[in-house]
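Bug #77: duplicate submission created two jobs. Keeping one. Sequence:
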Amino acid sequence: MLITDAEKISEEIQRSLPNVKCGTLRFWGVWFGRPNDNIHKIVSCECKPDVLRLHFDGHERLTVWFPRRSKVGAAAFRIEYAERVLWEWFYYGRPKTDDNLFFYDFVKTGEAVSASSNVNWYTPDLKTDLSMSAVEIL
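Kept job's structure:
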């Protein structure tokens, strides 16, 4: 049975927990918050054949479709390629309800990445850079 890249990355994360790099998230060059403003820590992960889902200590979720070329460890966390990246979080300091669940959704199509969000209290800068990794923790 062939193991997918998502399954390999999931296994690598599970072997490395709890010593996976913590820090600020960036998606194709788009920061979640300001650089070094937030510290996110992966606490678990799961995988379906080509979909990797990571769970973080603040109840955030990161879902990555068709991830490839990764670096996982205490010094670095990076997934260079993905077809889609969905970051979901609850508005910090508010109850964890559907009304307070927000997202950044990035979809790679050809030589571009389109981005959308349901954030309603500011206009996020979702200008992506395809030369950068799909997901990084810095």
